[in-house]
Amino acid sequence: TGRLVPPRDPIALADAVGELLDHPARRAACGSAGRRRVLTRYGWDRVAAATEDVYREVLARRPARITGAA
Questions:
Q1: Cα separation of 6 and 8, whole Å?
Q2: What are the sequence ranges of the domains in the chain?
Q3: Distance (Å, rounded) from C-alpha 14 to C-alpha 20?
Q4: Does residue 63 have a pLDDT over 90?
Q5: Span 11-62, pLDDT tens digits
Q6: Using CA of residue 35, residue 30, residue 32, residue 23, what is the dihedral sign?
Q7: In the chain, how many H helices and how many E strands?
Q8: Short-list 36, 2, 34, CA closest to 19
Q9: Of 20, 26, 55, 67, which residue has the fewest beta carbons closer than 10 angstroms?
């Protein structure tokens, strides 16, 4: 989905960007792979399922308290 470059290495970063600029097919493949990865990891169905899991875990840990009317 991309290319890693060493931190604080502007030459390696420039080389990586230049490589993508010089190879449109590789650039398109990286873009498509990145999109697929984001949709797989962070799609609404996945986010909703993770949120539901958190609610279920919290509710399972703490029994509901019933308080009197105010």
A1: 6
A2: 10-61
A3: 10
A4: no
A5: 999 999 999 999 999 999 999 999 999 988 899 999 999 999 999 999 898 7
A6: positive
A7: 3, 0
A8: 2
A9: 67
